[in-house]
Amino acid sequence: MNKPIVRFAPSPTGYLHIGGARTALFNWLYAKKNGGTFLLRIEDTDLERSKAEYIDQITDALGWLGFDWDDNVVLQSKNKSRHEEVVNQMVQAGTAYRCFLSKEELDALRKESEKRKELFRVPKTYRDYSLDQQQALIDEGKAFTVRLKIPDGITEFSDLVYGTIKVDNKELDDFIIARSDGSPTYNFVVAIDDSDMNISHIIRGDDHLANTPKQILVYKALGLAIPIFAHLPMILGADKKRLSKRHAATNVQEYKEKGFTPTAIINYLSLLGWNPDSDQEIFNINELISAFNFNQVQKKPATFDEKKLLWVSGQQMARMETSAAVKEIESLDSNWGINQDNKYKNDVIALVKDRSKTLNDLIEISDVFFKETISYDQDMSQKILDDSAIQVVKDLHEALNIEDNWRKDALESIFDNLMTQHELGLGKLIKPVRFALTGLGYGPGIFDMMFLLGKDRCLNRLSEAAKL
For helices 387-401 and 455-466, what crossing angle results, to 10°? Predict the structure, then answer.
């Protein structure tokens, strides 16, 4: 097999969507696995909705995810003259024709079909007009669109996910390839650009399935090589409707800001529509590249589950090297751990990393190790620090104050004595102490945490909590 050339072709009308990121991922994985080329084309021909800021955001998001594209980014708008040239060539060759039916005429014909409860078909009134006849109408000032002459027969293609798909050309109108203002249409320009870029495999969402026969007809009309197609299953929300903001965050930037790492996002997105040959769910990048195969991509829509994403993220967080986690946090929050010793920061993250699901979790939990004083939520204080809990805090402060050896075994001994004194199990003893020391109801093991906080911080915080 020749090395594949694939492309990701987003429209810059918004931030990079989770669905778009999944499409980019599957293209990138396929290229990497097969030693191929991954290209990036920005489809910016919708001048009203396309914005430069979205182009920047899309490229930034792809770069953050690690999807390194080959060659320069292609802007579809730069190919306008090429598109117009091919339209003219097709008109001259007779594979396309100028249609002089106005929008008003088409609307009237469509309404008549609706009244008769018939499927509307665009009349082929001008399909067989000669170039001279077409020119005569142009000279009269008549506006026109350009339509592809669709031949009789069947358009058939083999999809890597859906298998063989056949469409009777009778089901298709002679569709417009250039509007009345001269601007070429989506299905036309995509086919031209993919051919000019030598794209061998078109990997995209299955919402494009209906476009594929039309694009193949453009290839055939121009005598161009037809690429291999793979249409990926749609991503739905929990209610089985198309993923939208009412289900969860929908763009990559939002998940970056929530503290998810690229590896966690990539791992989870890979599972949306693809199933490995094993029970393995947690992958690093190299494992994904090695395992990925279109034989395991399913037709059934995938369901986006943010709880599953959090679980995957937690698993990846536990796998992450401590130094890498510190670097990721510092890139996310430049004020994190400022003026702190680098070894101390690494010790803190090593302690709390396995209990965190996102970088934001790490920032929140680790922050208590850097502050001299902490704040307490009033509602939580009332629930956790009742009179008996306050007494536990005071007794612990007293015991720690006279303890000269700040070691974990010494701390364990102090807690054993307090358990006996207050007739409490370890869990009930730890709860108010943890809250007094951190202001949180969760965190790492109490003895490891206290040892790392140090005696002075622990005494100061216990003293403050006892005043609540």
Answer: 150
Predicted local confidence at residue 134, as pLDDT: 97
Task: Write the DSSP symbol of residue 207.
Answer: G
Pairing label, strands 201-205, 5-8:
unpaired
Within 8 A by CB and 6+ apart from 94, the residues are 149
- 423: left (phi > 0), else alpha (psi -120 to 50), else beta? left
Entry pTM: 0.91
Tens digit of pLDDT for each residue in 262-291?
Answer: 999 999 999 999 999 889 999 999 999 999
Give me the residue label for tokens 């050309």: 169
Report the alpha-carbon angle 182-187-188, nearest 5.
Answer: 50
The count of C-alpha atoms lying within 13 angstroms of the C-alpha of 21, restricted to the half-sphere facing its C-beta, is 33
SS3 of residue 35 by DSSP: coil
- What are the backbone dihedrals phi and psi of residue 17, each rounded to the nearest 5 degrees, phi first? -75, 155
Instruction: Give the residue ranges of the chain where pLDDT is below 50.
Output: none
Angle formed by the axes of helices 426-438 and 387-401, nearest 10°: 80
The residue among 252, 254, 253 whose CA lies nearest residue 269 is: 252
For the chain, state the CA radius of gyration: 31
pLDDT score for 245? 61
Give the pLDDT score at 247: 62
Quote the tokens at residue 145: 């669109």
pLDDT at 45: 86
- Pull the structure tokens for residue 67: 């999807």
Cα gap 253→259, rounded to integer Å: 10
Q: What is the model's pLDDT at position 80?
A: 95
| Residue 66, CA distances (Å) to 28, 69, 250, 263, 273 in order | 10, 9, 19, 9, 21
What does the pLDDT read at residue 21?
97
Conformational region of residue 339, where left means phi above 0, alpha means psi within -120 to 50, and beta covers everything else: left
Report the SS3 class of residue 4. coil
Q: What DSSP element (H or E) covers 40? A: strand 37-42
CA distance 7 to 303: 25
Which pLDDT does position 435 carry in this prediction? 96
Write the CA distances from 111 to 100, 119, 143, 144, 461, integer angstroms: 19, 11, 22, 21, 77
Q: How many CB atoms lie within 10 A of CB 51?
A: 14
The two three-digit tokens of residue 162, written as one number: 């859906």
